[in-house]
Amino acid sequence: MIKTRNLTKIFKIGKKGQDELIAVDALSLEVYRGEVFGFLGPNGAGKTTTVRMLTGLIRPTSGSAQVAGFELGKDDTQIRRNVGFLTESPGMYERLTAEKNLSIFAELYDVPDVEASVNKYLSMLGLWERRHDSVGSFSKGMRQKLAVARALIHEPQILFLDEPTSGLDPEAAKTVRGFIEELKSEGRTIFMTTHNLDEAEKLCDRVGIFQGKLLSLDSPAKLRESLFGRKVVFHLKEMKQSFVDQIETIPELGKLEVVDNKVIVSMKNPEESNPLIIKKLVEAGAEVQFVGEIRHSLEQVYLEMVNNSQRGQA
Amino acid sequence: MKHILTIIRKEWSEVFKNRWVIATMTLVPLLFTALPLVMLATTGNTSPTGGAEMSGLPGDLSASCPGMNAEECIQVYVLNQFMLLFMIMPLMIPTTIAAYSIVGEKTTRSLEPLLATPISTVELLAGKGLAAVIPGILISYGAFGIFVLGSSLLGLSPAVMGYILSPTWLLGILALGPILSVISAIFAIYISSRVSDPRVAEQLSGMVVMPLLMVMFAVMAGKLVLNISFMLIAIIVCAIVAIGMLYLGTLIFDRENILTKWK
User: Fold this and answer.
1) Are residues A134 and A255 in the same domain?
2) How far apart are the C-alpha atoms of B82 and B172, rounded to whole Å?
3) What CATH number has the domain bearing residue A235?
């Protein structure tokens, strides 16, 4: 649904435009139909610039992209017609009612039955009772819901969500996340930028960690694995060197650490190695109390990647 | 065309919910209409002896109103100064709306979602421009209509009424006025796109009135005579300027510039 090849955006900066800022550097990625793709990166990484390019709002300096089957730079109007864009700030017309706000956008997107679509999304997002109120009287969460409705009013198959839960209270953020899950279950393709790594981990099939350039791209689980490997901790009633010796006889295990009564073993495939380790430990007379996998959060992965990139640049 | 109408409706829905904008758009035209009427009513009582005082008028003035008596001639002189207000109106009113049109959306962050729709730049500019121009023209026409009605109620002589409804002023108000409105709206939208503060946009956009004020002062100083030739030339020149500005506008305005460069 989205395919970019060496997509690059360079801004001319300085008073006379003599300096250059590479906001997006040769981005190549593919987002598949029905996928929720998380685009993660620190502030100023170029995430919004990327989304603006992919929605036909700004021109790439070089490279190419296809969005919903349309060529970026050639069919920008068609791209805008076929994608929904939730901007970082809701940006509603505050003096107008919720209903009027949505109907304006429904008309601009040439929605066939404006009234029906507006009513559908007002009801779906729980704003029906407030449809005649001016948006200026809405809470931040309600505005965000309305902005989501606006992005969906023309039933796009691809949705770009720029920081969808940014600045929302936990309850409003949960509502928006729930709605994104609903959209995912409907099979829509979602390209989402976020700072909330927990959210990305819960919602995204794959994530791209980005800082001017793409640092990594995979599912959250595989990213964790590639960076930290998989580690399993065995809690024993008491620790003896013979237990460690027994474990070391098992081939294809990684690093082994002993901390108090715990043995931490790095391994590629815990599903296969764990029963073997437990068997060896029991045979050696160890009493195994607990076994658990040490999971690195996406946040750790993200920080590691971004810090490595910053160190590399320095 | 559908998108243009949507933008016009959107602009009006927003603008006409602001009482201050409505006040500005109605009070100034009312004042501009009342002022010449008061002046005409006053000058109408200054010359009870009519033609007897004609000899006391300056030569230039009496030459500009042949066949009229002194009272009529003074009224024509007054009209010459104040009728230009009906051409300032279509310049002023659009700036009230247009100056806010882009910068207002920038400050409320509603510009990006709007630009993300399939609307073309031409449609967007046309919608925003027409939303500013149409009220300007309608209010100016309405004010002129009230002025004509008021003038006839004042019992002005057929000669003076003929001057008010002469081709010179009809061309000026009914034809040149709308063209000036278009120029004013494009200029204000351009300014609105380049600045980051709505107040600055309004102040700078107000400068569009300056050339017409210069014309007004030249008329007052007796350096310029407004006649049908002047109006025709002004219409042609202003139409060329308006077309040029429209063309330039569509070249200059694009989504990327508005979103990233003009902050």
Assistant:
1) no
2) 13
3) 3.30.70.100
